[in-house]
Amino acid sequence: MNAAKYRDILDENLLQSALDLRLGRRFTFQQDNDPKHTAKIMKEWLHNNSVTVLEWPSQSPDLNPIEHLWRDLKMAVHQRLPSNLTELERICKEEWQRIPKSRVSLKSLSASLSHGFRKIIIDTDFSSDFEESKHAVRGGEGVGFAL
User: Fold this and answer.
1) pLDDT tens-digit map of 48-83
2) 3-state percent breakdown (helix, strand, coil) of the chain, nearest 5
3) What pLDDT, in 10s, does the model give residues 106-147?
4) Sequential DSSP letters for 77-143
5) Predicted TM-score (pTM) above 0.90
6) 115 near 128, Cβ under 8 Å?
7) Alpha-carbon distance 87 to 101, whole Å?
């Protein structure tokens, strides 16, 4: 996916979803520093649509619990070496079905965050004032959860 496609997806979905969720304009959008997220056309679209974006440091620990599940799925699919798109789709579905339900639970996904939280605590300078410290309490891959 490139920045133009990402922009089109947000254009078709983000603001309407905020309205559907009764957030109005009172929300902060979270995304990581993937090049398509930080491209000029994306920055312009976000600015032109008055979307507040959470600052996101590069190389930050992943605090989006679903990303851990996607990583597991990606690794399982990669091991099976699909050779075409049809095979990739079939293998993805098979590997998804093989993931234990206990792994997909909120409790399990939340537990996978402990490493990221430890890294944040270690990397955060708690001797500075709260405003400075809270800016260090961020991290992740993709769009999702942030403190």
Assistant:
1) 999 999 887 776 666 677 777 888 899 999 999 999
2) 60, 5, 40
3) 677 777 676 666 666 666 654 444 444 344 333 333 444 333
4) HHHT---SHHHHHHHHHHHHHHS-HHHHSHHHHHHTTHHHHHHHHHHS-TTS-HHHHHHHS---SSS
5) no
6) no
7) 24
